[in-house]
């Protein structure tokens, strides 16, 4: 009898199907990216021969690397690759490239069922309750986004913003067990944050970027904005974006040092914190200060009395850091500038504009991504507050769902005694209240997806494989910790 597809053993059939599905998706991904870039270029015939092989190699590469590395790769690209070179127009308004890369990871984990063999040696995921709260709020927020979009008419802006946010921030949660990914993602974030912070601080001291200045020269662009002092930004398109990103590795490093005592984390946190100073971003500095202040309150519950000396060390470092910030020259110069006073005036007016715009939308929002358009009906200023922008665009229900989702991330992280991730979520939320991130900068949505992965997955479980029979029985230490 002729050997056909149906007579092939089941495991071989799965391999064949996975190969062709992978091939089709890789080619489709490359084609989508190529089409989008060619649409933005003035002379596509010049670039088509180069773009297609490069993008095909990139797409296939995303399917070739070990699957657990993909979230960490996304973070590295976001932190070190010049933002202005990442496409953001055309279809990428709804499908940000970083979100597409995470979608490839979700596709490989769920559809192709790819995972590390190491996961098989570990027990089931624990502490389901906090996860359930996170997933419930995620579903409610996603549902409300599309309800608000259709209530507003279902235009390109509303649907595009909703798809971009869900794909970036919520779809990664479809991978229920990402402990191995997080075990790599966390140290990568801390180390990359330290390197980025060091580079940004050096850029601030020099007054130009020795790393990314060449890119700007080639593109014929200037790195300087209309600021009263030089504000470094590294690979990011604005200092505020760089500062908000760096709040995450700073808090991860500080929290990791508090709970583990590893001094290299403290060093990395200091370097990333120096980078925040280099951006001269008062919002990000305040965000870290708020996170550290909350950590001072909750740290005794994480450490216990035996390691309480770290609490005093944190208090001392907070005092030293506060004095350094208060005496930081560029920050003082900016505080005395006309730019600073104008910025403060704009933020004061933003609250009034946001309330008027929210009332205009009946407190149910004028549609995701429309806060800028709606706000201009009442004032010409830009509302530099992401939460006020959400109030306008998705209304009171959407804002409450978002805040509830972020709050559940904090609780989920702290349920498995991860102080650093909880601090990072708090700091990031505080940081984005200082500029128009969520509603206007869709590429920043990916950081919420990264924070969600860190919060719901306990990476420490990957370091305790049950390879010995004795490991299956509780010990006094594990009972106390649990």
What does this molecule look like?
With 482 residues, the chain is mainly α. The protein folds into 2 domains: 18-117, no CATH class; 131-463, no CATH class. It contains 20 helices and no strands. It starts with 9 loop residues before the first helix and ends with a helix. Mean pLDDT is 81; it is low at 1-11, 42-48 and 463-482. InterPro entries: O-antigen_ligase-rel_domated, WaaL-like. It is found in: Membrane. It comes from Microbacterium invictum. It is a multi-pass membrane protein. Its main location: membrane.
SSE order and pairing:
Layout: H1 10-40, H2 44-64, H3 70-80, H4 97-110, H5 128-151, H6 156-170, H7 179-206, H8 213-219, H9 239-260, H10 263-279, H11 282-303, H12 309-326, H13 329-335, H14 338-360, H15 371-375, H16 386-393, H17 395-415, H18 419-432, H19 446-456, H20 476-481
Number of helical segments with 4 or more residues: 20
Quaternary status: single chain
The average pLDDT value, as a whole number, equals: 81
Indicate how many domains the architecture comprises.
Answer: 2
Work out the strand percent: under 5%
Count all strands and give the number.
0
Helix amount: 55-70%
Q: Give the ordered list of helices and strands.
A: HHHHHHHHHHHHHHHHHHHH
Please name the defining characteristics of this protein.
membrane; O-antigen ligase-related domain-containing protein; globular; mainly alpha; 2 domains
């Amino acid at each position: 009898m002729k050997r056909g597809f149906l007579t092939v053993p089941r495991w071989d059939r799965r391999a064949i199907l996975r190969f062709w599905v992978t091939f089709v998706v890789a080619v489709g991904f490359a084609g989508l990216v190529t089409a989008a870039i060619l649409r933005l270029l003035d002379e596509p015939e010049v670039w088509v021969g180069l773009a297609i092989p490069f993008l095909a190699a990139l797409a296939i590469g995303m399917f070739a690397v070990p699957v657990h590395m993909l979230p960490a790769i996304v973070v590295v690209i976001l932190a070190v690759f010049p933002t202005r070179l990442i496409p953001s127009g055309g279809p990428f308004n709804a499908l940000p490239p970083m979100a597409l890369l995470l979608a490839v990871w979700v596709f490989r984990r769920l559809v192709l069922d790819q995972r590390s063999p190491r996961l098989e040696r570990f027990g089931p995921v624990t502490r389901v309750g906090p996860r359930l709260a996170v997933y419930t709020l995620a579903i409610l927020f996603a549902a409300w986004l599309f309800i608000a979009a259709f209530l507003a008419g279902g235009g390109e802006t509303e649907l595009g913003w909703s798809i971009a946010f869900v794909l970036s921030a919520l779809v990664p949660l479809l991978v229920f067990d990402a402990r191995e990914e997080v075990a790599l993602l966390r140290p990568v974030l801390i180390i990359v944050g330290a390197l980025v912070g060091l580079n940004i601080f050096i850029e601030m001291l020099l007054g130009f970027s020795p790393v990314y200045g060449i890119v700007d020269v080639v593109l014929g662009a200037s790195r300087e904005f209309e600021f009263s002092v030089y504000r470094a930004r590294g690979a990011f398109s604005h200092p505020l974006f760089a500062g908000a990103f760096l709040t995450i590795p700073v808090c991860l490093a500080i929290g990791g040092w508090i709970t583990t005592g590893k001094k290299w984390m403290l060093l990395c946190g200091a370097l990333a914190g120096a980078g925040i100073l280099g951006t001269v971003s008062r919002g990000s500095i305040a965000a870290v200060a708020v996170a550290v202040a909350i950590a001072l309150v909750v740290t005794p519950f994480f450490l216990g009395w035996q390691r309480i000396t770290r609490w005093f060390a944190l208090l001392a470092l907070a005092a030293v850091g506060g004095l350094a910030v208060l005496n930081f020259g560029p920050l003082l110069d900016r505080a005395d500038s006309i730019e600073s006073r104008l910025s403060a005036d704009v933020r004061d007016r933003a609250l009034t504009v946001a309330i008027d715009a929210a009332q205009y939308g009946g407190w149910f929002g004028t549609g995701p991504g429309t806060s800028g358009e709606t706000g201009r009906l009442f004032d010409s200023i830009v509302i530099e507050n992401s939460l006020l922008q959400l109030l306008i665009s998705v209304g009171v229900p959407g804002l409450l769902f978002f805040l509830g989702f972020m709050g559940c991330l904090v609780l989920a992280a702290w349920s498995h005694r991860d102080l650093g991730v909880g601090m990072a979520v708090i700091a990031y939320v505080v940081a984005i209240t200082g500029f128009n991130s969520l509603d206007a900068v869709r590429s920043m949505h990916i950081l919420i997806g990264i924070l969600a992965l860190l919060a719901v997955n306990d990476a420490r479980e990957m370091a305790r494989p049950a390879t010995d029979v004795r490991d299956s029985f509780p010990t006094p230490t594990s009972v106390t910790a649990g």
